[in-house]
Specification:
It is a single chain. The protein is of the alpha/beta class. The chain has one domain (12-263): Alpha-Beta Barrel (TIM Barrel). It has 10 helices and 10 strands. It has helices at 12-24, 30-33, 39-44, 78-89, 109-122, 139-147, 161-167, 173-187, 203-215, 242-255; strands at residues 28-29, 49-52, 56-57, 67-68, 93-98, 127-131, 152-154, 191-197, 220-225, 259-263. The chain has an 8-stranded mixed beta sheet. Strands 3-4 form a two-stranded parallel ribbon. Strand 8 (191-197), helix 9 (203-215) and strand 9 (220-225) form a beta-alpha-beta unit. The longest helix has 15 residues, at 173-187. The termini are far apart. The mean pLDDT is 89.
Length: 277
């Protein structure tokens, strides 16, 4: 039996409200750009993950629906608009992520901190989670992120070692582990990562990757079913039943993760405000 999840159609009212605020503030939500299956649920909670530094990624991961190309000039006014939108939405917990900006000297790390500062100034009670690229393991950029004093740091491992090169051709499996380890050792914060299932991994390989994440200091984990955004993207090799995600959650908790979200439609920012809180 194939377990293809049913995706909710966004409520027009919530969709219109969110898109109106995004448009008026010239912002990008990863919910839209990445065709996230949880848009309906998140919009209903007036929740969203914001994507800064433009909508064009300098890398070309085979699972991702974000467009690829050369990034545009950094918009120095984006932090203030972002903070304003968060205030309009009255959000108490936000996730800030970005496209990869390998074209920038600091990989966009200083823009992350500018966004955090602006959000804190206008929304002092809002908790901020930063879901960052790997910055090519540039420690100066990683230190800049840590100095922002966010509530939580995250970087997605995405898949197992064997599949990583094909899924993320311009990234590196071990480099991502090093980034997560650097965050864990130097920030004093809880560090989160995410894995997609259904790309062709085995259960044994998944367990090995989970253990490697735990060993470098990752304390929170999300597991979700990979859904192919278009026919030209990486093909789904397997649809897992809900019971498998329940099993993997128990395995992860048994290994020592402090918090785990695992389910067919779970994504890295799924109910981020509740995970580990």
């Amino acid at each position: 039996m194939i377990y293809k999840p049913k995706i909710k159609v966004p409520n027009p009212e919530f969709l219109q409200n969110m898109q109106s605020i995004l448009k008026s503030n010239a912002l990008t939500a990863v919910c839209e750009e990445a065709a996230c299956p949880n848009r309906a649920e998140c919009y209903a909670r007036n929740s969203a993950t914001f994507m800064i530094l433009g909508d064009t990624c300098t890398r070309a991961c085979t699972f991702c629906n974000v467009k690829t190309g050369h990034g545009k000039d950094v918009d120095i006014n984006e932090p203030q608009r972002l903070a304003k939108a968060i205030k309009e939405l009255q959000l108490k917990y936000v996730v800030i992520t970005s496209v990869d900006r390998d074209d920038l000297k600091d990989y966009g790390s200083k823009h992350f901190t500018a966004c955090v500062q602006a959000i804190k100034e206008q929304n002092p009670n809002t908790k901020i989670e930063l879901l960052t690229p790997d910055f090519k393991y540039n420690t100066e950029a990683l230190d800049t992120i840590i100095s922002a004093n966010a509530h939580k740091l995250a970087h997605n491992q995405e898949t197992i070692r064997r599949l990583s090169k094909g899924v993320r051709p311009q990234s590196n499996y071990d480099r991502s582990l090093k980034v997560l380890e650097y965050y864990a050792k130097n920030s004093g914060l809880h560090v989160k990562s995410s894995l997609m299932l259904g790309l062709g991994e085995t259960k044994e390989e998944l367990l090995v990757t989970m253990k490697e994440l735990l060993d470098v200091g990752v304390s929170e984990l999300t597991l979700g079913q990979y859904l192919q955004p278009t026919p030209s993207h990486h093909k789904v090799q397997k649809y897992y039943p809900p019971e498998f995600f329940d099993e993997m959650k128990e395995e992860a908790l048994g290994m020592g993760f402090r918090a785990v979200a695992s389910g067919i439609l779970v994504r890295s920012s799924y109910f981020a405000e509740n995970l580990g809180e």
